[in-house]
Amino acid sequence: MTQVHEDRPPVLPTQQDEVAAAGSELIGGPAGRHFRPGGHWLAPVRVVVLVALGMFALGMVQKLPCYDWAWFQGAGSQYTHACYSDIPHLYSARGFADGLVPYRDRFPDLAVDPKYGGMQYLEYPVLTGAFMEVASWLTPSSGAIQHREQMYWMVNAGMLMACAAVIAVCVTRTHRRRPWDALLLALAPAFALNATINWDLPAVALAAAAMLMWSRGRPLLSGVLIGLATAAKLYPVLLLGVLFVLCWRAGKWRAFGAALGGAVVSWLVVNLPVMLYAWDGWKRFYVFSQERPIDFGSIWLLISQRTGNPLEGANTYATGLTLLLCLGIGLLALTAPRRPRFAQLAFLVVAAFILANKVYSPQYVLWLVPLAALARPRWRDFLIWQAGELVYFLGIWLYLAYTTSGDKHQGLPLEGYQLAIAVHLLATLYLCAVVVRDILLPERDVVRRDGSDDPSGGVLDGAEDVFVLGDKAKAPRYAAPPEGQRVAWGTDPRD
């Protein structure tokens, strides 16, 4: 396969993407032929990080009504202002305000203290629990509880902002010749709005770092980071499945073994002490995930509400659908004309996990945004998907406002919320569809138009296939342009 030399200049989206070109008019228009990216202090990684932090700050400003008063004035106001966050509420409801030790100390029963909601132990993975605990150490331990909850959210917001910066750096550097694609992440409105709802960004940052290390040919360190990410949220373990299929097709078993070994060891290093020290508390996350009924945002909730069937076997249905979708993605990877890119399969597998899950919390979109920026760096498709996620972001809060407003009926009724769920599902499926199309028709993949194979593939980049199902893999139908020649978005009839 044709590989692109590293000394070629970075790809400029304003010269390949009509939406990026139109949007650039706000800051002076598309880059001209004499523009030299990276030759001054406005290097891509600096711009992307600054933009990402600016958007993160705007997301914090959006939570201002709740920070000032709505979190503490009953449920309704934080929903009508769409500024809800789990962080201040769980400061008290999970024992951090009382100095309880996560996983070791059992919460009082509901009859004794209703603020704990009947939960026995902290229902988060170990590394996320550690993140929450460290934030509580940095929060004042005296004073009014309202002020302490505000400070706890602020401390967490600062720590989560650092995670956002790490994500921005990793996404910018993963595709060496396409650093500006990371602006999709930096400017994603759904990322900014959901960043401080819960503690998802530590896992997202570790997963992004793992993909960066894999792209640099360091499978062992990539595996270590995947293991740590899985110790913070469950979804990053899916990256190992993606690497298994890709390494199977390319015959890169040594690299996969290094990644798998690193992931297992790092996960055990973090989890084993808590497993031995506080088994009941450690297993609560996994038991809760298994026993949790269908909940907001899921396709199962939509089916249940529309049919009147409680779907008591939803756990089996969700697991079965997830496995079926992953099997289909695996077959796609082994039968595609060219081996799919790592980011493409990672996006599809995580999207499948989200679509088939029993619950879809609005912050789950954070898992997909970095993967989407790498898998399908096209502004039109990305913004269509983001619009669907914004509809759901407003829909869930307005529906909760409706259910908590009593006879006032402020907010969105059930039918409107069901429509918001459908929009979210369809928008995600749309982005999945165009990624699948890129895999089946690799000449349509904008990342490969300069002759690249898989910039995020590490040892897989340019590797020959040793196992392909069906017909022999086809040769790429889009050759690299001559040295120094750029591909403009208006010159390719396949665009």
Automatic annotation (TrEMBL):
According to Swiss-Prot or TrEMBL, what is its membrane topology? Multi-pass membrane protein
The portions of this protein that span the membrane are 41-61, 151-171, 183-214, 220-248, 255-279, 315-336, 382-400, 420-440
Q: Among the entry's GO cellular component annotations, what is one? A: plasma membrane
Cell compartment(s), UniProt: Cell membrane
InterPro entries reported in the protein's UniProt record: GT87 (IPR018584), UCP010361 (IPR016570)
* Record key words, sorted: Cell membrane, Membrane, Transferase, Transmembrane, Transmembrane helix
> What Gene Ontology molecular-function terms does this entry list?
hexosyltransferase activity
Chief localization: membrane
* Entry annotated with the keyword Cell wall biogenesis/degradation: no
Q: State the similarity comment.
A: Belongs to the glycosyltransferase 87 family.
Name by which UniProt lists this protein: Membrane protein
Q: Which organism is it from?
A: Streptomyces katrae
Q: What is the lineage of its organism?
A: Bacteria, Bacillati, Actinomycetota, Actinomycetes, Kitasatosporales
